[in-house]
Amino acid sequence: MTSLADLLPADWRRARLLGRILTDEGPSPVLVKDGRLIDISRRACTTSQALDLSSPADTDGSDLGAVETISAASAWDGGGLKLLSPLDLQCIKASGVTFAVSALERVIEERARGDAGVANTIRQGLKHRIGGELATLVPGSEAAERVKAALIADGLWSQYLEVAIGPYAEIFTKAPVLASVGWGAMVGVRADSAWNNPEPEVVVICDGAGRPVGATLGNDVNLRDIEGRSALLLGKAKDNTASAAVGPFIRLFDDDFGMDDVRRATVRLDVEGQDGFVLHGESSMTLISRDPEDLVAQTLSAHQYPDGFALYLGTMFAPIEDRDAPGKGFTHKIGDRVRVSTARLGVLENVVGTCDQAPPWTMGVGELMRNLAARGLLEATQ
Question: Which of 118, 233, 255, 374 is the least buried, fewest Cβ under 10 Å from its Cβ?
């Protein structure tokens, strides 16, 4: 059994945490506060509604017990409390190619054809022509435009660099409303994908007014072979059954945790395969090229989100370690255990299966509303 406390931030006793669990009656929003797990469904029947309250963390409800005495159920360990994704009515968005330095490096390495000496020559030439370090590049700036001109002149430009250093961020829909999965669930990769990987990320949560109100962890499962064929296949590579993992809880912003903590976060990834393969990596948010608040603003430039939205902020980590044979790189295998973690957001852990093996997504918005109405929660929380 996994203790619920083991999934939470290291300072969980001070943190304000909002999540969702599956009860015998249906899904219910919960808070972790004062060392207790509190069902707040009679005050806010969705986390979307809870986040629109003036003080979500002060909401009262039914005491489910001390956090340290509660076990969490998972796809690999039955029994205990089933955690759901902390998202319900929020739109699930994602931003891509948000680490410009890694995008530039990939293009440089491609041009150098694996020769580190040639790569360094290209890199130093770019530094001489554009001035400064590539890591300091601000997307959309005059300096970025000079880099763009230099890259075009050297035949290095690509559509990925356009969103890496150009004025407009790549913002896309990661999954339908209610389709994300939480801690302990199976994450899915398409059976016809032969090259795929996890993407460990911080996910910013915004309320119905578009204000960032918290953050959590995410695994933006990606099918690299499908996306690599064409950027127009991004939807097929990104939006599949159980391909969006979020959790374990939303940490609400307060005086002790805010956007600056998001900006400083280091996201750790650990993969353990049933074949004995082990992978470790990290992605530092200090290296992100677009500020999280800018990514939120670009998301809001499209239209409004009256039920709020979650925004994956992107990652600089792409595993390249060979798993089966030299030069073949990394790809998931069925049964991989994937852990995404940070000290201040906790641990998001999932097991990999194919999309058709994952439990089907059956509770859409209509079914959720019928469930809440039958429980008398819609009337209770108006």
Answer: 255
Whether pLDDT at 108 is above 60: yes
Which of 83-87, 227-231, 299-303 is least confident? 227-231
Is the CB of residue 168 less than 8 Å from the CB of residue 195? no
Is the predicted pLDDT of residue 130 greater than 80, yes or no?
no
Best CA proximity match to 329, nearest among 193, 196, 236, 191: 196
Q: Which residues pair with 37 in a beta bridge?
A: 32, 65
Higher-pLDDT residue of 335 and 144 is 335
% the chain with pLDDT above 90: 69
Dump pLDDT digits (tens) for 16-54: 999 999 999 999 999 999 999 999 999 999 999 999 998
Query: For residues 126 and 136, is the Cβ–Cβ distance under 8 A?
Result: no
